[in-house]
Amino acid sequence: MNYFSHFAIAIGFIFSLLFYQKAFAAANGFVAKNVQSGDNVVTLLQRYGFTAKERSLLLSQSPALRNLYLQMDVRYLVRQAPRKTELRLYDPQKNIVVLIEKSPARVFARTARAPFKTSIARISGEVRGSLMANLLEKVDSNWVASRFCDAYVMDHNLDRELSRGAKFWLTVEKKYDGPFFIRYGEVLQTSLQIRGRTVQKHFVRLQKDGGVFVSENTALFKSRPFYAPVDYLRIASLFQPRRRHPITRRIQPHLGVDFELPEGTPIYAARSGTVLRFGHNRAAGNFLVLRHTSGVETSYNHMKRLSGHLRRGLRLNAGDLVGEVGCTGYCTKAHLHFAIRLQGRMVDPLRYLRPYPVFAENLLHAKVARF
């Protein structure tokens, strides 16, 4: 190793140390707290002494704060002094932090890019009963456990295909603000024994906020007629003919799949077709129904807004923008409810969808070839 290599390493170390010390100094006096069951932004602000008028002002200042959904596996930071209170609230999926301050001089909230440092953790275990329960024993995060299952749910029935003692492992990002662990990031790789065979999945990023799980067998999905209507498959609710509705609490069918995504995320046509109907109703909120060949229909519900160019009979291609994820109609959290009607019968969309949008196909197959 020559002089310049040693010099570059030394400079890199000094800059890394300075960055860490700066981050540590910025966090000095802060305490990391866990979100409690039932917490939301309003109750959290109440807990730290913000009045109703101050809360209203903060929510008006920051759209990100208004839309922030607190999760129990995402920590927040608080620093309290006799005449000043500061909070740092983190988005559970994006690298965004809402900085909140209260002092005699001002009360304000602003959004910033979270200064996360990222490390990679490897977690392993065996299936002894419920896979979700076994995952949660190893990593106390519903997000991580759910993302692990997301990697397999489109091509495997995990309730039927797993045997006791099946081994699993995963690698996952851990996000830190200074010295404080805040939340887990993306699950990067998974491995699971299914029917005695080890099946590995890799997370491939498509763009800034998108990505899908793929394996060497992803090309097999070419037999499926529909593309994913979103570029990030975070599955919140499966096709369940006897699901208990989260709002009415009555047993009623859930005849589609819910993709949980931030409000405003683009939604695409899953296949070429024509606009059959669209509009707004009490249950579905802003909705769209497309008709495809042989009378097949796809539905897109709870959208924040529909694309402005839509009209009845309009021909769309697979991948055309049709709207944005929202929470209109009967809805508790921003998501897309996507459904497929095949010859008059509602079917499980996950059996007919490829795990990627049409624009990502060439990119993914190029990357799969390198696995």
Q: What attributes characterize this protein structure?
A:
single chain, 371 residues, alpha+beta, Nuclear Transport Factor 2, Chain: A, Glucose Permease (Domain IIA), 3 domains, five-stranded antiparallel sheet, disordered N terminus
What does this protein structure show overall?
The chain is an alpha+beta fold and 371 residues long. The protein has three domains: 34-114, Nuclear Transport Factor 2, Chain: A (Roll), CATH 3.10.450; 115-205, Nuclear Transport Factor 2, Chain: A; 225-356, Distorted Sandwich (Glucose Permease (Domain IIA)), CATH 2.70.70.10. It is built from eight helices and 21 strands. It has helices at residues 3-27, 41-47, 52-61, 63-66, 131-138, 142-150, 158-161, 361-368; strands at residues 31-33, 76-81, 84-90, 96-102, 107-113, 116-126, 167-177, 180-194, 197-205, 211-214, 235-237, 257-260, 266-268, 273-281, 285-291, 297-303, 305-306, 315-316, 321-324, 335-342, 345-347. Strands 11, 12, 14, 15, 16, 18, 20 and 21 form an eight-stranded antiparallel β-sheet that branches. A five-stranded antiparallel β-sheet has the order 1-2-3-4-5, with helices on one face. The longest helix is centred in the N-terminal third of the chain and has 25 residues, at 3-27. The protein is globular, with a radius of gyration of 23 Å. The two termini are 32 Å apart. The relative contact order is 0.10. Residues 1-25 have low confidence and may be disordered.
